[in-house]
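# step 3/5: fold
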Amino acid sequence: MQDKVPTGLDRKEAEAYRHLDPKRLPRHIAIIMDGNGRWAKRRHMPRVAGHRAGVSAVRSTVETAARIGIPALTLYAFSEENWKKRPKTEVDFLMRLLGRYLKAELPTLNQNNIRLQYIGRPQQLPEDVQKRMDWARENTSRNTGMILTLALNYSARSEIVDAFRSILKSASQNGGIEDLEIDEEMVANHLYTRHLPDPDLVVRTSGEMRLSNFLLWQLAYAEIYVTSTLWPDFRGVHLLEGIAEYQKRERRYGGLNGDHAHPQPIPAEFDITDDDDASEPQPASKVR
């Protein structure tokens, strides 16, 4: 337990932070923001009220992450599927809300030295929204603190498709594809997130147990933290609780840690031998 607490945290956040190891903070946290509709429904309000309330959750979470020194935070704000499965009135509201958020939150982003980026297919968003996005990104481009990435019109499958298209285009402009050798590093270097480390922790609100087509390549070894808290009720203290859970876990990346990393003898009954005599089949008449 530590005594030194970053400035700007409220009482609950400060108490939660004291239980963290600042040397073991995630480098990159990704959040699937879910539950706006259910939050509104429980209050007999329209779905858009939940989206509006979710802005406060974004503000609290972003500020807390920046204050404790998280290098990168990515928020799943709007998926490609939202275009197809949400009513047009709701989509139009979300676009207006995004524009207002970027304008209203710019001073807060700059005060916290946050640099804004986007991933997804923004070229398919309304032109006025694209202009506001470009404006906000440009006005935070000189900040040197946390990178806040908004996933907008985003689909992990589309990202992987776009990565391979980019690889083929690059190869065709540099001698052709005949000698093209694709490996994991090459794919990663053509993803939307090539400027970011892979997330160490992914947080999902509202209790749902799925990734929803979010950063499927990048989350291969991420720790998953699911909270039943609906997104509009999520605050910085909830983020710190997720980090505390993350720090309790042993990350192995497919290997072994601790004493289990040392070779151990295999019991005879589980041994597999290459001795031809040992594996010689019995005559059919003796098999029972």
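# step 4/5: annotate
The CA atoms of residues 83 and 222 lie 28 Å apart.
# step 5/5: archive (pending)
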